[in-house]
Amino acid sequence: MRRSLLGLVLLLLLVWSIPALAEPPQQDGGVLTGINTRINLRSGPGTEWRILGTLEVGTPIRLDGHDPSGLWVRGIVPGGEVGWVARRYVDAPDEQVFALPSIWVDVPFTLPAPEGGVVPPSAPQNPEQPQPPAPPEGGAGTAVARRVNFRSAPSTASTILATLDAGTPFSADGRDPSNRWVHGAIPGGQAGWIFATFLTISPGEIAGLPVIETSVAAAAAAPVTNTAPVRGFNFGGHVEGFSDYAAGLMHYAGMTWVKRQWRYFAGQNPGDVAGIINDAHAKGFRVLIGIVGLPGEVNNGGYFEQYAAFVGGVAGLGADAIEVWNEMNIDREWPAGSIDAGRYTELLRQSYNAIKANNPNTLVISGAPAPTGYFGGCGPNGCDDNAYIAGMAAAGATRYADCMGLHYNEGIVGPSQTSGDPRGNSGHYTRYFYGMLNTYSRAFGGKSLCFTELGYLTPEGFPPLPGGFAWAQDVTLAQQAGWLDQVVSLAARSGKVRLLIIWNVDFTQYGDDPMAGYAMIRPDGSCPACDALAR
């Protein structure tokens, strides 16, 4: 009996060991390849993104995907740095690269770093620059005059296929009917469109090209932004004009989000917002739409239902995030005598349900109150934000938002300071980044926070600030740049912030409300804050 039992145990041990012995080794995934020429590793898929480092010939890189244009690939190198390189500078065959998923910069990276060493290149270390095909009869050989985006259609709303440096050869073969856009091919043979003024080609040569009729809507490629649920920490900027120049600087600064604000009135069609969403996606950004109604309509019968239906429709069009109202604790944005946190929470509840019914991946952000201690509590014309958010929390607002909105825009000390503001009432929490962060985190029980406006005002390069903003008269442009760089890092490390939108990128109005003083892009086109964030 003992011998039989011992045999059974040995048999079971043998059987159990077979799968373990037969199991194949774990694969790291992705595509392991090497770099075939000295090249910059960048934070995004384009030369407008900041340089993370320089890779030498033979550097191993493990790829996890390519951008939607297929011109750039993302990977990890020894040491753990993750970044993007042009596809032609890696040794992996195209069929392997295109078997990887199409991704964007905010898709989490999960692959391990390769070991050090050198992967022998399969191409010359200094390959000759490929030339574009010869222009057809009636075409013209030309070159890029200034750094420019190469697009899929003759419109700034179309997809950016690549960003071309000055001197890039271009084989022109056609034009649009307005003579403003030229069609042709770049080295490698890819065809697309360039705005005519960015080429070394005369108006007469453009006029001699054949007209190419195209439907911009049909020619524009699919959105290039990621549409997966929002994870981790993200940051971006609030824009007014959102030119290609501004978008390029935002990419350079590392931004992946753009905010636009929309003023809603009863009866509007959600489709009116589609252009904003498509423009943001075509330029490679996720988009936050702040939707603010008219205070005079709030008390009309059925208004909450109408507003909720509108924001739900905007979500269905592909908005990545929607902020439900703005500064609803003051009478500039909500009717005097009706300012009430519980009533706003009911609007938030209806809006949340409508948004999620149309697009579960759209991030719902509660409206950010105006940060203020002016009212000494709550009254007919306004409510201090600490009292207002306490009312929102009591009404259950955290159940109807993915992220709680807040603003910080009156700082004249560095973001790491928690005291020392030279103004009166220097201990008030609204004076400090951490004062706002901790006040809202406590009020909402640790719920994720979204700064939908965060900025520093400086008059440098402008006339003196108007009286209501004179508190920022001594803030310099260098301080603005340094503080924005610091506050993005502090927010990312806090574990409390899901999204931070810098107020603002490109506003130009400078008067009683000196919005241009907050702008990252200054009147001369410089952007010190972009340089600080890119380092």
Descriptive overview:
It is a single chain. The protein folds into three domains: 69 residues, SH3 type barrels, CATH 2.30.30; 80 residues, SH3 type barrels, CATH 2.30.30.40; 301 residues, Glycosidases (TIM Barrel), CATH 3.20.20.80. Helix content is 25%, strand content 20%. The protein contains twelve helices and 22 strands. An eight-stranded parallel beta sheet has the order 17-16-15-14-13-22-21-20. Helix 8 packs across helix 9.
Q: C-alpha Rg, in Å?
A: 27 Å
Q: Alpha-carbon distance between the termini?
A: 76 Å
CATH superfamily of the largest domain: Glycosidases
Using the 3D structure, state the CATH architecture of the largest domain: Alpha-Beta Barrel
| Sequence of strands across the biggest β-sheet | 17-16-15-14-13-22-21-20
- How many helical elements? 12
- Helical amount: 10-25%
Q: Outline the low-pLDDT stretches.
A: 1-27, 122-129, 216-228
- Count of individual domains: 3
Strand content: 15-25%
Q: In CATH terms, what is the fold-level topology of the largest domain?
A: TIM Barrel
The coarse silhouette is globular
- Oligomeric state: single chain
Largest sheet: 8 strands, parallel
Number of strands: 22
Question: Structural class from helices and strands?
Answer: alpha/beta
Reading off the top of the CATH hierarchy, the class of the largest domain is best stated as Alpha Beta
Overall mean pLDDT stands at 86
